[in-house]
Amino acid sequence: MEPTVTADKPFCLIADLHVAFHGRPVLKAIDLSLDSGGITVLLGPSGSGKTTLLRALNRLNEDFPGHLRSGRIQLRLAGELQEIHQPEISVTALRRQVGMVFQTPNVLPTSIQRNLLLPLKLVTDLDREEREARIEEVLREVHLWSEVKERLKESATILSGGQQQRLCLARTLALKPHYLLLDEPTASLDFKTSRAIEDLLLELQENYRIIAVSHSLRQARKIAGRIIVMKDGEIVHQLDREGIACPETLPQLLEELF
Amino acid sequence: MNRLVTLLIRGWSWFSVLLFCSALASLLWFLLRHGVPTLGLELFFGDAPVGKAILGQVRVWDALWPACVGTLLLVLLAALMALPLGIAAGIYLACFAAPRFRQIMSLSVELLAGTPSIIMGLFGFALILFLRKTFFPAANTSLLLAAGCLALLILPYLIFTTRAALDSLPAGLKMIGPGLGLSHLETVFHILLPAAGRGIIGGVILALGRAAEDTAVIMLTGVIANAGLPHGLLGKFEALPFRIYFLAAEYQSQAQLDSAYGTALVLLCLTGLLYCSAFLLHKTLEWRWNRQ
Q: How far apart are CA A74 and CA A80, in angstroms?
């Protein structure tokens, strides 16, 4: 696949974003511009608004009751920056371009193949052969093909946690998104499996604009090209590659925050 | 102390299970002991020749066949009316309704569920009286009316179980559709409903059983003891639960009472058959969902 990520132009602009649920503010006056290459990691204590910020990017907050938003979010879609709340952009079309993987692997209680086929059938107009080719392509992309190629018709629920999470990743990638939002993708996995997923994300950053929520400093240091530190619904610090590389800066910062 | 509490809870759970199993076993044993000896063609068809009786060419007297057909038709008709409505209402309440409306509707459904079946029967009876005095002087209690009132009786079970099955799906499963950019409708029909299938079928089974065994509703809305095979939707009919009630209340010989046991056994088997059909339907749907 041709790399779609270019480091020089901003791909995400957020201006004065406020989000509240049932009148309780969760995000306050967020201003953010993402233009560097590499994975953006949102770091911060529980309840700091990381997941809400992530969900604002694919408008998933709107599916939760009592949601109220003000402010602008622009994403680079089809080559140009576009305001994602403008009426011309349908929320379903946006979410197909801004794929999301959740904290706990949420496979469908059906076969491995069906997990990938169902969204492809519903969303794309690929024919049967193209769909099967796409399935193989994404399963290879997440390094799952060799493990499941003999048992595509078996239930996805018998896969291990790490395999299920990679299947969820493959399911999202099958729809060819430009962005990948990851909400603590390794939170429910053991150390070794987490490392494998992190290595995979480092490979995927070549082709996708990745924004991930993490609670692990080790993980953030390993995968991040930029770290956004959040507290109480606000962005309190941003670190670029140099800041991340500096052995004192990040631990000191987090010591103050947590 | 904790150990003692655990032990007590465990003991109570085992006792409850044993009590349930022994109650079920004694019921079955009692029914089988009295019912099995009466099973035979005579119980179903009396003196009538079997072939002609099945085809409806001769009238069957004092036997089960018309009641079997009546009950089966009654349950099918009631299911035909209540299933689409009940399941659709459950889906609406779980996936589409605004929270406030959902609260009001849930209360109404609870109210409907708490209505005694005799009231449903009276409602049907009163409806016929009203129709006779106003628009349709020829209106009378019938198979259609009984099925309609039964449908009203089982509607809340269907709504409740469908709604509960959808509500209780894991939050992660509910997020798959929106996360992949599926529309709400696609998420509901392609992801949530198939995943909730088992729970919904559970409700269908419960509802079918309830429709098959209810006597109070049909007593006031069209069942009679010797109607023969039902003559169309607007005709009178016989039904197994009413036959059991009638035989048990007015038997004149031991043989008649025994045939009531036989009838109860047949009703049990018929309900079992309906359960099996519902289960098979669920398996077929599940297979189709998994099919490539």
A: 9
